Task: structure prediction
Amino acid sequence: MTGTMTRPGRWRGHPSGTPLPARSRMVQSAGALRRVIGAVWFWPMLVTAVIGWHGITAAVMWRDELATWQAASRSVAQLWHMVHNVDAVLGVYYLGMHFWMALFGDSPAAMRAPSLIAMTGTAGLVALTGRRLGGSTAGLAAGLAFAVIPSVSRFAQEARPYASVMFFTALATLLLLRALERPRWPRWALYALAIAAAGALNVLALCLLTGHALCAAMRCWRPGEDSAGRRRDVALGFGLAALAGVTLDLPVIIAGHRQVVEQIGGHARPALSSVLGQYGAIRLWPELFYSTGVAVAVLVLAAASLRGPSLRASAYTLATAFVPIAVLWTASQGPISYWYIRYLMFTVPAWAVAVGLGIVGMEPRSAAARRARGMGVAAIVALIAILGIPGQHAIRQAEAHNWWSYPDPLYGYPANYAGAAKVIAEHERPGDGIVFKRDDRWMVDIGVDYYLRGQAKPADVFLIRTPAQAGRLGAVECARPARCLRGEPRLWIVYQGYERDPYAAIEPAKAAALRAARYTTQRIYAEDGLIVALMTRE
Result:
């Protein structure tokens, strides 16, 4: 004995003269730090957080993020009114952002921070899932591969629920694996809650249940390994947990179904070219991972995972990764198309786990083999990261969030709301008015309002009811614009596009009212997809 206990919890000391309690605390702290650093989830979470934070404010807030700001800035009563008319499927997310913004503000970094936090947590869950299926090295490889995929940092920097959905789907997958190993009701209850949380943030994430159902079926179909009672426990537990998760989401599902035509009725029905190829390139996979090179690497490594003793684990992972995509594509062949690549981002964690299994398979037994394989893991993850560098650079461009697809901005123009707001802030005078060409697709008025928040700004000439007052995402303007003019000496005209003539760009009724009031264009400011025109009255 190196010390003598004189009373419970108190030591007389150490023969060397060093107080044992202080040393004990240092040793315990050092040991805890080593355990954290050595944990399979630590480095994936750290790398995800660092990459995700880098350039988090570089891209201008875009239409969808502006919708988040506008909705979450309302009172709870106004938000409740809005979700009865539009965006019911996002009501839970908007409510959470309402309270977040009340605490941390509405700057781009503050609004995007919840997504970064959720994505960082997802990296840890991916690592833990990979470890459960293929060992520690596979878990580390999966987590690090997830961290360097460009779409991960892209949606870690967006004030929308995609990252949170990825977190809860990854959590549900991990909880499912635990429940399949030991089918106990507390485990199934946690799984049901995770599924419900994912569905509350994105109803289409419930497609994950189809992949999970296949995993449960594979777990039951293991001849000679399990008793009939255990198979019954797995089947019954999964069935009831899935039913419970969907039941909890029924209010969101019903309300969303009523609004589905208005919300996504314009989505095109996907053809096979949406998955297999279009314009000479494979479209789905580059858009899912935001990099063609990374997409190829992911698919190759995922296919390589189907080998050796890890076959069952790979089958679990690929079922979770691919089956929901196939289900959503099939469902989109009906009268309503749900096919939008952003809605499928919740499958990326499963693809990352498949990559981890493909890199290392099952963990080798010998220490020498593990060291050699560890170097190989680092090299492959580094290769994925290098392949993703162009994508990482692209997503931090000022207008990158306005790209509706990747790698090319195939749809429409950029919209530099910050630049347009800066022009107005620098040149506006008391008594000025402002006129927007209002378009639900571009939300020019909301974007300029966001970047002018907290500053004096011209009066919105044709505004009758704000979006909050109307219970919608768009404002209500006067039906007869000529009656709303008050003889403002100067008007700022803001619209999306490159048309240099404001009269040709804005709505005909507004143009007629301004022409009758004898407004003429004095100056045109072009701001990357937005035009700000200054007009004065003769």
In short: Residues 1-13, 277-281 have pLDDT under 50 and may be disordered. Strands lie at 5-7, 10-11, 433-436, 459-460, 463-465, 476-477, 490-496, 519-527, 530-537.
